[in-house]
Amino acid sequence: MRVRNRKGASELLANNPQYVISNPEECKGRWAEIFGNDNPIHIEVGSGKGRFVTGMAAQNPDINYIGIDIQMTVLSYALDRVLEAGLPNIKLLQVDGSSLTNYFASAEIDQLYLNFSDPWPKKRHEKRRLTYKTFLATYQEILPEKGEIHFKTDNRGLFEYSLASFSQYGMILKQVWLDLHADGLEGNVMTEYEEKFSNKGQVIYRVEAQFQ
């Protein structure tokens, strides 16, 4: 998600340490302490403006959520949502999804979401796709045995690539939706992109993939 720089974004993030973790390296292995409970921890890599992660946190108060995005301005808009909702079970990180092992210990995260990731359609950019094997290896390190990735996209090419990538990595495809909104999913929380694309009649794809 590319947006114009937002004036004051840095100050907004810095002024809300109760939600925005400025020193995530120091939190590795201590996230239960940071949240103040032993509830499961779910993360969304590429959280955009925060609609999904905030909605999930509101819907599931007994699960802790962490929204991750590399872009400061985008994360500041996510913070707007978090502040409006006033939820205690959500944190935000401005970090790169490729370096998650710097911030989370082995098996510290219970579930991971990838929603409407950049498809990087050119073959030479394959390694940048968030479902490329090196990213999967990173996710596997911080997830427990049989940990799951829940992935949504409107991009058929990326979806087909991701199904193959998951399978080639040895993951189990637990459930696949070729038209999420037609098939239905109880408790589905939409992202900003999901609502935009579905309103245009575009199909939304989804898969739940599990490490073995």
Characterization of the model:
The protein has 8 helices and 7 strands, in the order ααβαβαββαβαβααβ. The chain has 212 residues and is of the alpha/beta class. Helix 4 links the parallel strand 2 and strand 3.
Radius of gyration, CA atoms, in whole angstroms: 16 Å
* Shape summary: globular
Distance linking N and C termini: 31 Å
- Number of helix segments? 8
Average pLDDT rating: 95
Name the strands of the widest sheet in spatial order. 3-2-1-4-5-7-6
Written as H for each helix and E for each strand, in order along the chain, the element string is HHEHEHEEHEHEHHE
| Number of E-state strands | 7
Low-pLDDT sequence parts = none
Helix content: 25-40%
Structural class: alpha/beta
For the sheet with most strands, the description reads: 7 strands, mixed
List keywords for this structure.
212 residues; alpha/beta; 8 helices; 7 strands
Give a topology summary.
Layout: H1 9-14, H2 31-35, E1 41-45, H3 51-59, E2 64-68, H4 72-85, E3 90-93, E4 111-115, H5 133-142, E5 148-153, H6 156-168, E6 172-177, H7 180-183, H8 192-199, E7 205-210
Parallel strand pairs: 1-2, 1-4, 2-3, 4-5
Antiparallel strand pairs: 5-7, 6-7
Give a short summary of the structure.
This protein is α/β, with parallel strands linked by helices and 212 residues long. It is 33% helix and 17% strand.
